[in-house]
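thoughts on both lines:
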Amino acid sequence: MFFSVKPFEGQQFAALIKQCQHNKTLFEDPLFPAEDRSLFYQGNRIGKITWKRPKEICDDPHLFVNGISAHDLQQGQLGNCWFVAACSSLASREALWQKVIPDWKDQEWEKDKPEAYAGIFHFRFWRFGEWLDVVIDDRLPTTNGHLVYCHSNDSNEFWSALVEKAYAKLNGCYEALDGGNTADALVDFTGGVSEPIDLLEGRFKEDEEERNKLFDRVLKVHNRGGLISCSIRATSQSDMEARLDCGLVKGHAYAVTDVHKVRLGHGLLAFFKSEKLTMIRMRNPWGEKEWNGAWSDSSEEWQRVSKSEREKLGVTVQDDGEFWMNFEDFTKHFTDLILCRLINTSYLSIHKTWEEDVKFGSWSRHEDPLKNRSGGCINNKATYPQNPQYVFEVKKPEDEVLICVQQKDKRSLKDGKGENLAIGFDLQRVELNRIYRMHRPQQKICSSAYINSRSVFLRKELKEGRYVIIPTTFDPGLQGDFLLRVFTDVPSECKELTLDEPPQTCWTGLCGYPQLVTQVHVLKAAGLEAQDTGGSSDPYVIISCGGKKVRSPVHKDTLNPEFDVKGLFYRKNPKEKILIQIYNRNVLSDSFLGQVAVNTDASDMQKDHVLHLQGKGSRQNSNVPGVISVSIITSNVLTNI
């Protein structure tokens, strides 16, 4: 699949390697030199470092030895288990690592072509909406002849050390990788979206039904090529890397390398028994044996699984840091899970295809409240509506929507002291015809977490309607750039709301300009006339004013519909009434159920009304069965709603 790639810092790999081969020199990267400033923010914290090329470390260096696998990686003298765990996950996905390690066959050492070796490599990472091609030389930091940081089990395999160096360059220096977020690395490796799941908050340990639903989600992400990581939360600094009695380590990122439903039993009996275990396999970046509970490497539970099933799972008893657990034990011991979904936008796929909308935006300060775009979270009531706003449609009766807001990473700035902003977003349901910016909060559906991580994510089932996403910083007045990604089942037509009110044009003097703005919220109706043969109706409501209309979805088989639909009208003629009509959906021709006509202006104090439905035509002033509940707000300031 084609995707565009931008050279990081303008360094073109093809031109640089050609130049080195022509000059018969080995590449020395001027942007990431073999000096302490490429290792540390402020000064050496390890001791004497010698930079060596792989050929100076061993006789027969290779990018890969016997292919690539999760077992290749060993964490070095850097607190980057989060990065190593992400690499372990990456290694199990050929389609993904070949994006990160492009042209890997051409980058491999060739004994029969020594003149092709130029000491230069390149790797690719996804950052802020684009793939970046990062060039490095192959000089690696060593002490006493051994690699300081990430390395492979095979002393002549270097892919992990070189990928780590490229990632360190992207982030500013090696020390920038000391303490990080696995979710960020997974996104950088895939261009996907990471969903963090709090296993404690979700109470998956206690709730079997919810636990089974979660396992199905995890299995689906795994089977569709996504990457998964997990950890046990440390509550204090002294708790970090504390080993539990069960062998697991707190504050330590584990890569999930397999997810399976395992059939218990042997022979034909296994196929007739319905008992299956939900199983998950993990790897410790230290490559050491850890988990000592049920289904650990040499536990007796494996005797309950047939030889063929074990071979299918690739179960081996080795001290390789990889181990199985059943999912129930997993939710008992682990506290955090990260699902990095690969968002499939190809119409040729057999799997679910998502529609993606990508928007770049900024939080920026301005003295004019209508131009300010840094209003802070909803706690700041006066300034909150001043944030950027993005409207989108849900066009199905119900749709699963994924929303991700990502900020530019600031950790590599200011000598490693740069802090990411605490960011989040709210989702609000708005009028079906809203095309101008909101000026007061509406129906808040949900919020993401507010956190100073690079990205925040939300997955939500939404009913048909129009919604506004409001990305914000937690505190007002802060500035920064962000990337908004919205994924829906059908095109959502996501766009930024930029105008505050209807614009004045050259025709305004002739055609007039709105004097009032009115929001009509039809809440529900009750006691409607039954018009279907089954003694019910399929009602919908139409709100009309000034030649504009808003129509609700149809509500099936009910005489008491909960419409919950809004319309917004900019009114040139304040005396014109707002017409609210209810119809019954029929196959050939829809039938009329009743209507109300409402006149409202800015002086009206009462906004909530319960009104008897009336007929039309000759019955216009006669009541018909049913009442309707509406809430109406009118203002003569067009930027009040």
Summary: The two ends are 45 Å apart (CA to CA). The chain is about 15% helix and 30% strand. The chain has four domains: 5-190, 193-341, 355-496, 511-635. The first helix runs from residue 13 to 23.
